[in-house]
Write a structure and sequence with these properties.
With about 170 residues, the protein is an alpha+beta fold. The chain has helices at about 40-60, 80-90, 95-125, 145-165; strands at about 5, 10-15, 20-25, 35-40. The protein contains 4 helices and 4 strands; from the N terminus they run ββββαααα. The protein has a 4-stranded antiparallel sheet. α2 (about 80-90) crosses α3 (about 95-125) and α3 packs parallel to α4. The radius of gyration is 18 Å and the shape is globular.
Length: about 170
């Protein structure tokens, strides 16, 4: 997952466009595209609200369903060793595999959103220079087995996103 911001209950992926010196946001989960641009956090929220309002009005006028639908099911291909580790972590937690995966993915998604909001606030106040690459403490090698599998599931991509964003 990339850098996510929530605007009025709707998630949007945010990226910095160095060619124009602005952040670009695009809402997720919509049946069509709705994007917006701004130079800081408050501008993103304001422009995001406007973009979403216009999008929803256009959908209503055209009779289009504004949101994608999701079944709640997806397939994941992983190595047999990781599969065994995940089953062990689920059993050790007293959960079924599905319960453990749902809980772990939910925690990962929420942590990534909170990390990004903190980064975005810091960068809009302090600018783009003076940041060092760093790893999140919750992804350390000495973490508990459940946290270690969480890092394998989504931490690699999360860490890449944070390092690319921060450096």
């Amino acid at each position: 997952m990339k850098n996510i911001m929530e605007i009025d209950g709707h998630k949007a992926v945010i990226a910095f466009d160095s060619d124009i010196g602005m952040f670009r946001g695009e809402f997720l989960g919509l049946s069509e595209s709705a994007d917006f641009y701004a130079t800081g956090v408050e501008g993103l929220r304001r422009e995001g609200r406007t973009s979403l309002k216009v999008y929803l009005q256009a959908c209503e006028e055209r009779g289009i369903t504004p949101y994608k639908s999701f079944s709640g099911k997806f397939n994941v291909r992983i190595s047999p060793d990781l599969h065994a580790d995940i089953v062990s972590a689920a059993e050790a937690s007293g959960m079924s595999l599905n319960q453990w995966v749902e809980k772990t993915l939910s925690e990962c998604a929420q942590n990534e959103i909170l990390d990004f909001i903190s980064l975005l606030r810091a960068k809009s106040v302090r600018g783009w220079s003076g940041y060092d690459c760093c790893a999140s403490p919750r992804l350390s090698a000495s973490a508990a087995p459940a946290s270690w599998v969480l890092a394998l599931f989504c931490g690699g991509r999360l860490l890449d996103a944070v390092v690319r964003f921060m450096c």
